[in-house]
Amino acid sequence: MLKTFIWILIGGLGAAAVGGIALQRGETINSLWFIVAALCVYALAYRFYAAWIAAKVLAVDATRATPAERLDNGRDFVPTNKWIVFGHHFAAIAGPGPLVGPTLAAQFGYLPGTLWILIGAVLGGCVQDMVTLFFSTRRNARSLGQMARDELGVLGGTAALIGTFAIMIILIAVLGLVVVNAMKHSPWATSTVAATIPIAMIVGLYMRSIRPGRVLEASIFGVALLLASVVYGGFVDRSETWRVVFDHDGLTLAWWVIGYGFAAAVLPVWLLLAPRDYLSTFVKLGTITLLAIAIIILRPDVKMPALTPFIDGSGPIFGGKLFPFVFITIACGAISGFHALIASGTTPKLLTNERDIRMIGYGGMLLESFVAMMAMVAATVLEPGVFFAVNSPAGVVGAEAADAVAKISSWGFPVTVEQMQTLAAQMGETTLFARTGGAPSLAVGMASIFGSAFGDGLLALWYHFAIMFEAIFILTTLDAGTRVGRFMLQDMLGNFWPKLGETSWTPSVILTSGIVVAGWGYFLYIGVIDPNGGVNILWPLFGIANQMLAAIALSVATGILVKSDKLKYAWISGIPLAWLVTITSAAAWEKLVSADIRIGFFAAANDMSAKLEGGLLPPEKANIAPQLIFNLHLDAVITLFFVTLLWLIVLDMLRVCYRHLAGKPVPPLSEAPHSPSRLVENWARD
Amino acid sequence: MLKHLRTVWKAVRRLSGDDAYERYLEHHARCHAHGEDHQCTGPLSRAEFFKQWQDQKWEGIKRCC
Predict the structure, then answer these.
(1) Which residues in chain A are closer than 8 Å to B59, comparing Cβ atoms?
(2) pTM of the model
(3) Is A67 inside a domain boundary?
């Protein structure tokens, strides 16, 4: 009785908070409402929807032995305490995506992104993660690609493999671009980010040779060094001799990032990748916790309006209307196909009991959605004028500060040159204009939140701490992604020449790493030379790719549900799938055929060709125009490829479902046979 | 209170892999005690174990966007 009353109370509070956010007009709104709305929606969804899916749709069976128990080998298959699995799972799924996406989507106002983060997560992303985790657990922890091949057929399996590889390339390029935009002409940020490399190596050597396996000691030592590097960056910035060493334009930095990516893929993991990952995980968890505490202590007002005029598609950060582009821009935080790769293959190997699938799969994604919500708050507590000044590329608002502020103010978001200069000086930067990509504006937002909550005197330190925090785990994703891409490529090439498939054969390592780095390095290079910032092209491409991967995961899930004679429940994955197919196809369509040069790839390419031929471009633009035109065509081809792949797999899934319902033969369910769990109640090895 | 702190500390060690070697030794002892053929050939030294553990950990997709 009391419980029912409490849940009714949570329901009422959640409805009031969401309603308040949605209907508030004119006045500013307190960010606490966002937190309350999110927590209530999550609690209700977890308690009712997730529990219902677990019990009725999936019918999780606590008495059934999991692969971790059956195949326990003490190394990769290990039954593990559920909180530990939750920690590993969350650390793996939560990268920079949920921070960058909402920041960019804030150009539409706070409302569309906020609603999509809430609804997309509870009905889409969490469901995807949970059902994928469940189905993989029932299939000896097979990967998404293997499940697609087993359950749907060769087409599904191949599509999943190619999709994963393609998404990796685009993801790394766009993340590299975010880091480059944060570092360009910023000696402080560049020197701090550069310092993280030797720090990771010192930690790696410590863990390898000095005190083998003492992970915590080494990490604590490394985090202390990282914090010191933020302070030391300040000295670099103030030193006339040192600041020139770290003061570079975007292109130079892009070459450094590309070189670094290659080195990281070739060097042994213990030297760079593994130690950096420890540091980034600790810093990430610490900073996110700190941000949550700061928002709750401070309760800043959200200054961005609920909706901006840019919902008509004229936004400065990226072109395109609210529908479908808000759904493409916020992928991680609402629904992210990438998670299906972790939820299959990786996490199931640790799962002790099926009943923990709800907490780990559904709950893990809820927490990531909450991170996205905080990023939305951090972006929208900025003055909108400042937000747009930081994020609008020079190609849209003009390279001169005076032009930029005039243009942004003319949109109804007043901002002055003095205001931006004061802000830049407070943050220890020479300028904050045109730092497209989300990281710097998020860092300004975080710095002002941290500064107000924990002391205002250290704004510049907070800002560079936030930059370091984002850069370190973006670089971790870059390292790890390049490596995974390399393994996948070696695996594929091994089919043609077995020697290339040997992961430790040096010529193959160098060749395949080189190909992967060249792949993302190309997009990064084009993104940097693009006067419109590159993010406007790459981020939607990444969103489309990520949603496509999610559609593959949901197709596999829907196919399995239908084949298990659970047609009446197939909507739990079918509805999010239908929505993803709709938004991805709509976005791809716009990107291909829109006549608006800021949206359509062909429109932009034709416009640039015409200007180039007419001699209307200034010489520095005319030089790069052929490359940009080629790239626009390439982007169009890639978009077409993604959306074709998406439709192929959806139609393949529908074909399998139809055949099953019509009583025709289909690939059999690949579920491992039931074997009873021997592990006693509440037991776990910890 | 002290008990809770100890639980937290254990969880942190477990999550970070700080206790991986100790768990490996336990597993090793157990699989020998059962007399099962797990292809366990003598426990590795801490340094050797850590090397293998770390290389193997980074073979699949471990980090995401």
Answers:
(1) 487
(2) 0.93
(3) yes
